[in-house]
Amino acid sequence: MPDHPENRKRALRAELRGRRRIRTATEREAAETALTQQLVQLTSDLRATFIAAYLSTPDEPGTRDFLRWADGHGIRILLPVSREDGLLDWAPYDGEDEEQDILGMPTPTSELLGPIAINGVDLLLVPAACVARDGMRLGWGRGYFDKTLGSMEGGPPVYAVIYDDELVDAVPTEPHDMPVDGVVTPGGIVSFSRG
Protein backbone atom coordinates (compact mmCIF):
# COMPACT_ATOMS: atom_id res chain seq x y z
CA MET A 1 0.00 0.00 0.00
CA PRO A 2 2.52 2.64 -1.12
CA ASP A 3 -0.11 5.42 -1.32
CA HIS A 4 -1.46 4.83 2.21
CA PRO A 5 -1.43 8.08 4.25
CA GLU A 6 0.96 6.63 6.85
CA ASN A 7 3.51 5.79 4.13
CA ARG A 8 3.22 9.30 2.65
CA LYS A 9 3.56 10.79 6.13
CA ARG A 10 6.67 8.73 6.83
CA ALA A 11 8.30 9.87 3.57
CA LEU A 12 7.40 13.53 4.19
CA ARG A 13 8.72 13.39 7.77
CA ALA A 14 12.02 11.94 6.53
CA GLU A 15 12.35 14.72 3.96
CA LEU A 16 11.58 17.42 6.53
CA ARG A 17 13.97 15.93 9.10
CA GLY A 18 16.69 15.98 6.46
CA ARG A 19 15.99 19.63 5.62
CA ARG A 20 16.12 20.61 9.27
CA ARG A 21 19.41 18.81 9.86
CA ILE A 22 21.23 20.66 7.09
CA ARG A 23 20.35 24.15 8.34
CA THR A 24 23.48 25.97 9.42
CA ALA A 25 24.00 27.33 12.92
CA THR A 26 23.77 30.85 11.47
CA GLU A 27 20.41 30.04 9.82
CA ARG A 28 19.09 28.55 13.07
CA GLU A 29 20.16 31.54 15.14
CA ALA A 30 18.59 34.02 12.70
CA ALA A 31 15.41 31.93 12.60
CA GLU A 32 15.19 31.78 16.41
CA THR A 33 15.65 35.55 16.72
CA ALA A 34 12.88 36.22 14.18
CA LEU A 35 10.66 33.47 15.60
CA THR A 36 11.00 34.89 19.11
CA GLN A 37 9.72 38.24 17.86
CA GLN A 38 6.73 36.54 16.21
CA LEU A 39 5.93 34.49 19.33
CA VAL A 40 6.14 37.63 21.49
CA GLN A 41 3.77 39.36 19.07
CA LEU A 42 1.25 36.48 19.13
CA THR A 43 1.37 36.24 22.92
CA SER A 44 0.88 40.00 23.23
CA ASP A 45 -1.93 40.07 20.65
CA LEU A 46 -3.78 37.33 22.56
CA ARG A 47 -2.99 38.96 25.92
CA ALA A 48 -1.89 35.51 27.07
CA THR A 49 -0.78 35.24 30.68
CA PHE A 50 -0.76 31.42 30.87
CA ILE A 51 0.64 29.32 28.03
CA ALA A 52 1.59 25.75 27.23
CA ALA A 53 4.66 25.41 25.00
CA TYR A 54 7.65 23.09 24.66
CA LEU A 55 11.44 23.05 24.85
CA SER A 56 12.77 22.85 21.29
CA THR A 57 15.32 20.26 20.27
CA PRO A 58 18.42 21.36 18.28
CA ASP A 59 16.73 20.59 14.93
CA GLU A 60 13.45 22.37 15.74
CA PRO A 61 12.71 26.06 15.34
CA GLY A 62 14.02 27.51 18.60
CA THR A 63 11.57 28.26 21.41
CA ARG A 64 14.01 28.79 24.29
CA ASP A 65 14.60 32.55 23.84
CA PHE A 66 10.83 33.04 23.73
CA LEU A 67 10.34 30.95 26.88
CA ARG A 68 12.94 33.06 28.70
CA TRP A 69 11.15 36.23 27.53
CA ALA A 70 7.74 34.92 28.63
CA ASP A 71 9.08 33.84 32.02
CA GLY A 72 10.74 37.23 32.47
CA HIS A 73 7.39 38.92 31.76
CA GLY A 74 5.50 36.93 34.39
CA ILE A 75 3.71 34.61 31.95
CA ARG A 76 2.99 31.21 33.47
CA ILE A 77 4.35 28.41 31.26
CA LEU A 78 3.65 24.68 31.18
CA LEU A 79 5.82 22.24 29.25
CA PRO A 80 4.91 18.70 28.12
CA VAL A 81 6.34 15.47 29.47
CA SER A 82 5.61 12.30 27.48
CA ARG A 83 4.03 9.39 29.32
CA GLU A 84 4.14 5.71 28.44
CA ASP A 85 0.37 5.62 27.94
CA GLY A 86 0.59 8.08 25.05
CA LEU A 87 -0.65 11.09 27.01
CA LEU A 88 1.21 14.23 28.03
CA ASP A 89 1.82 15.33 31.58
CA TRP A 90 2.62 19.01 32.09
CA ALA A 91 5.22 20.65 34.29
CA PRO A 92 5.92 24.31 35.04
CA TYR A 93 8.79 25.99 33.22
CA ASP A 94 11.33 27.16 35.73
CA GLY A 95 14.25 28.02 33.44
CA GLU A 96 16.41 25.62 35.41
CA ASP A 97 17.60 22.08 34.79
CA GLU A 98 16.31 19.85 32.03
CA GLU A 99 16.12 16.11 31.64
CA GLN A 100 14.82 13.81 28.91
CA ASP A 101 11.43 12.13 28.94
CA ILE A 102 10.73 8.59 27.73
CA LEU A 103 11.03 9.75 24.11
CA GLY A 104 14.31 11.54 24.70
CA MET A 105 12.63 14.96 24.46
CA PRO A 106 13.84 17.79 26.70
CA THR A 107 11.57 18.38 29.69
CA PRO A 108 11.74 20.44 32.88
CA THR A 109 12.68 18.86 36.18
CA SER A 110 9.84 20.62 37.99
CA GLU A 111 6.85 18.83 39.51
CA LEU A 112 4.52 16.91 37.16
CA LEU A 113 0.98 18.29 37.21
CA GLY A 114 -0.91 15.73 35.09
CA PRO A 115 -2.67 15.87 31.69
CA ILE A 116 -5.46 18.27 32.69
CA ALA A 117 -3.06 20.94 33.96
CA ILE A 118 -3.31 22.77 30.64
CA ASN A 119 -7.00 23.48 31.14
CA GLY A 120 -7.24 27.23 31.31
CA VAL A 121 -4.16 28.15 29.26
CA ASP A 122 -4.59 31.14 26.96
CA LEU A 123 -2.37 29.75 24.17
CA LEU A 124 -0.99 26.34 23.24
CA LEU A 125 2.19 26.20 21.13
CA VAL A 126 2.91 22.80 19.57
CA PRO A 127 5.73 21.34 17.50
CA ALA A 128 5.07 20.08 13.98
CA ALA A 129 6.91 18.62 11.01
CA CYS A 130 4.80 20.85 8.75
CA VAL A 131 1.32 22.34 8.51
CA ALA A 132 -0.99 22.62 5.51
CA ARG A 133 -2.70 25.88 4.59
CA ASP A 134 -6.03 24.38 5.75
CA GLY A 135 -4.61 24.00 9.26
CA MET A 136 -3.93 20.27 9.22
CA ARG A 137 -0.78 19.53 11.20
CA LEU A 138 1.69 16.76 10.46
CA GLY A 139 3.42 15.79 13.68
CA TRP A 140 6.32 13.41 14.15
CA GLY A 141 4.18 10.27 14.32
CA ARG A 142 3.73 9.49 17.98
CA GLY A 143 0.29 11.07 18.40
CA TYR A 144 0.89 12.79 21.74
CA PHE A 145 -0.24 16.24 20.62
CA ASP A 146 -3.11 14.88 18.49
CA LYS A 147 -4.47 13.15 21.61
CA THR A 148 -4.09 16.34 23.62
CA LEU A 149 -5.77 18.48 20.95
CA GLY A 150 -8.54 15.93 20.48
CA SER A 151 -9.40 16.05 24.17
CA MET A 152 -9.63 19.85 24.40
CA GLU A 153 -13.11 20.97 23.45
CA GLY A 154 -13.36 24.73 23.43
CA GLY A 155 -9.68 24.96 24.23
CA PRO A 156 -7.28 27.83 23.67
CA PRO A 157 -5.90 28.91 20.31
CA VAL A 158 -3.37 26.31 19.11
CA TYR A 159 -0.42 27.43 17.00
CA ALA A 160 2.25 25.17 15.53
CA VAL A 161 5.82 26.46 15.47
CA ILE A 162 7.56 25.70 12.16
CA TYR A 163 10.05 27.09 9.67
CA ASP A 164 8.69 29.23 6.82
CA ASP A 165 9.13 26.50 4.18
CA GLU A 166 7.14 24.03 6.31
CA LEU A 167 3.82 25.76 5.63
CA VAL A 168 2.71 23.62 2.71
CA ASP A 169 -0.30 23.22 0.42
CA ALA A 170 -1.44 19.85 1.80
CA VAL A 171 -0.42 17.02 4.13
CA PRO A 172 -1.56 13.40 4.18
CA THR A 173 -4.13 12.92 6.92
CA GLU A 174 -5.87 10.20 8.86
CA PRO A 175 -9.01 10.43 11.02
CA HIS A 176 -7.08 10.96 14.28
CA ASP A 177 -5.11 13.96 12.94
CA MET A 178 -6.03 17.28 14.51
CA PRO A 179 -5.86 20.74 12.92
CA VAL A 180 -4.31 23.83 14.48
CA ASP A 181 -5.59 27.40 14.52
CA GLY A 182 -2.45 28.83 13.01
CA VAL A 183 1.30 28.71 12.62
CA VAL A 184 4.15 30.85 13.83
CA THR A 185 7.24 30.96 11.62
CA PRO A 186 10.27 33.23 11.58
CA GLY A 187 8.54 35.12 8.76
CA GLY A 188 5.20 35.71 10.46
CA ILE A 189 1.98 34.52 12.03
CA VAL A 190 -0.66 32.81 9.90
CA SER A 191 -4.12 32.16 11.36
CA PHE A 192 -6.52 29.74 9.72
CA SER A 193 -10.24 30.44 9.59
CA ARG A 194 -12.46 27.66 10.86
CA GLY A 195 -15.65 27.36 8.87
Brief write-up:
Its EC number is 6.3.3.2. This protein is an alpha/beta fold.
Estimate the helix proportion, in percent. 25-40%
Number of domains: 1
Distance between the terminal alpha carbons, to the nearest Å? 33 Å
CATH classification class: Alpha Beta
Structural class by secondary-structure content: alpha/beta
CATH topology: the name is Rossmann fold
Enzyme class: ligase
InterPro entries: FTHF_cligase, FTHF_cligase-like_sf, NagB/RpiA_transferase-like
Protein name: 5-formyltetrahydrofolate cyclo-ligase
Organism: Homoserinibacter gongjuensis
Describe the fold and architecture.
Helices cover 28% and strands 23% of the residues. The protein has 195 residues and is of the alpha/beta class. It has a single domain, classed as NagB/RpiA/CoA transferase-like (Rossmann fold), CATH 3.40.50.10420. A hairpin with a 2-residue loop joins strand 11 (182-185) and strand 12. Helix 2 packs parallel to helix 3. The chain starts with a helix and ends with a strand. The model has no long low-confidence stretch (mean pLDDT 85).
Helix-strand blueprint:
Layout: H1 5-21, H2 25-45, E1 50-52, H3 64-72, E2 76-82, E3 88-92, E4 98-100, E5 106-108, E6 123-127, E7 130-132, E8 137-138, H4 144-150, E9 158-161, E10 167-168, E11 182-185, E12 188-191
Parallel strand pairs: 1-2, 1-6, 6-9, 7-10, 9-11
Antiparallel strand pairs: 2-3, 4-5, 7-8, 11-12
Helix pairs in contact: 2-3
Task: Name some characteristics of this structure.
single chain; 195 residues; alpha/beta; seven-stranded mixed sheet; three-stranded mixed sheet; globular; EC 6.3.3.2; metal-binding; magnesium; FTHF_cligase
